[in-house]
Write a structure and sequence with these properties.
Distance between the termini: 31 Å
Largest sheet: 5 strands, parallel
Number of helices: 14
Shape: globular
Strand order of the largest sheet: 4-3-5-6-7
Low-confidence stretches: none
Bound molecules: uridine-diphosphate-N-acetylglucosamine, 5-amino-5-deoxy-1-O-phosphono-D-mannitol
Number of strands: 12
Helix content: 40-55%
Mean pLDDT: 96
Radius of gyration: 20 Å
């Protein structure tokens, strides 16, 4: 039950250090003398060879589950070398897009019962692909009908807005990338850095949850806005999409996640002195590109809220012109797990302050069982 919390969404945001711990339990191997650190996904071990031989990995999901797959896509491509494509389940069905026997189709769903995802699964089964599930619900339709898969073990999620399932899904897909990648010597340092980071990730999430009051203060500033843009790129394009999905779904405020590389191809026209914009600019290979995005948005007088790595406030705030959210730095591919937390808190506080229903947003259902 809700314990000391007022809402399930709030409880589920704050329990992420624990849900991430149960997601990883028994699946990370520290490695002893002469033994490499590694991951063990019991549900996949007999299928890894087939997955490694596939021509393509296709991620299929809806809403937050799609966003989680998008966050994991770069590390899966990097470690597996296999092309990874993304499909919103309903769009794959609308197009009757090509799915082949040589494909591995990965179905991501918290509930395991989403109609669009389930129908896309039936379609992929008919087309002969290897179908892998990533679900939170043991015994769900998607868990039963996939050939194999991984339970994310995040615990029941009650709030309609998905929070702890998102972070656990990303962690499972990062572990999937490690499992498919195998232990080629060329990847070893990178793999070990990711595994070490996974062990410490619950602590980093505990640290970032300390921003709760700061996010409440930010929500007070934004309470009456019409719209909130979020710019991200690379690993954190997904963070921008997921942060804005949270804001629109529970706080009932228009919000749009924008791929920062697209800024000059349209969105820049929206920017003026009144529009609040969140820019995700934590340290990774895209950092200097995001710094220049910040400068260009600032030149158009955008009201900027920049999320950066701890210690980078001066490097991003343009002499105090931007409000800054500092978050702990982790391995680049796991940074989306940390970065989404302040945005979940922001969406939560905006919803409470605006007086809307947190756990049952209007017009929405937890499990979307009709198309
Ligand atoms: C399993 C047990 C777990 C136990 C552990 C001990 C279950 C559900 N899990 O966890 O309680 O502690 O062994 O070794 O009994 N699957 C799908 N589609 C999905 C999700 C899963 O087909 O969407 C299949 C998997 O391929 C696997 C089975 O369901 O055959 C269980 O998956 P998972 O719980 O992830 O496996 P383990 O982590 O090994
Ligand atoms: O249960 P699923 O993961 O398949 O659900 C998919 C979406 O319906 C779901 O993530 C939805 O977008 C959430 N309400 C977002 O918070």
């Amino acid at each position: 039950h809700k314990g000391n919390y007022e809402h399930y969404m709030q409880k589920e945001i704050h329990e992420q250090p624990e849900s991430l711990t149960t997601t990883m339990r028994g699946r990370l191997i520290r490695g002893g003398t002469c033994k490499a650190k590694t991951v063990l996904l019991g549900g996949l071990k007999d299928h890894l060879k087939t997955i490694r031989r596939s021509r393509r990995i296709v991620f299929i999901g809806c809403g937050t589950s799609y966003n989680a797959a998008l966050a994991a896509r770069p590390i899966l491509e990097e470690l597996s070398g296999i092309p990874v494509t993304m499909e919103i389940a309903s769009d794959l069905l609308d197009r009757q897009g090509p799915i082949y026997r040589e494909d591995t189709a990965v179905f991501v769903s918290q509930s395991g019962e989403t109609a669009d995802t389930l129908h896309a699964l039936e379609y992929a089964l008919q087309n002969g692909a290897l179908c892998v599930g990533i679900t939170n619900t043991v015994g769900s339709a998607i868990a039963r009908k996939t050939h194999c898969g991984v339970h994310i073990n995040a615990g029941a999620e009650i709030g309609v807005a998905s929070t702890k399932a998102y972070t656990s899904q990303i962690v499972v897909m990062a572990m999937l990338a490690l499992a498919i990648g195998g232990d080629a010597i060329s990847n070893q340092a990178r793999r070990e850095a990711i595994i070490d980071c996974l062990f410490d990730l619950p602590n980093k999430v505990r640290d970032v949850l300390k921003l709760d009051q700061e996010m409440k203060d930010l929500a007070k500033l934004l309470i009456a806005e019409q719209s909130l843009l979020m710019f991200g790129r690379g690993y954190n394009y997904a963070t921008a999409l997921e942060g804005s999905l949270k804001v629109k779904e529970v706080a009932l405020m228009h919000s749009e996640g924008i791929l920062a590389g697209e800024m000059k191809h349209g969105p820049l026209a929206l920017v003026d002195e009144s529009l609040p914009i969140v820019v995700i600019a934590t340290r990774d290979a895209c950092f200097s590109k995001q710094q220049s995005v910040i400068q260009q948005l600032h030149a158009r007088k955008g009201r900027l809220i920049v999320m950066c790595s701890s210690g980078d406030a001066t490097a991003v705030s343009l002499g105090g012109a931007c409000r800054v959210i500092e978050v702990p730095r982790v391995e680049d591919c796991l940074q989306p797990v940390v970065n989404i937390v302040p945005l979940q808190l922001l969406a939560y506080h905006l919803t409470v302050l605006r007086g809307y229903n947190v756990d049952q947003p209007r017009n929405l259902a937890k499990s979307v069982t009709t198309e």
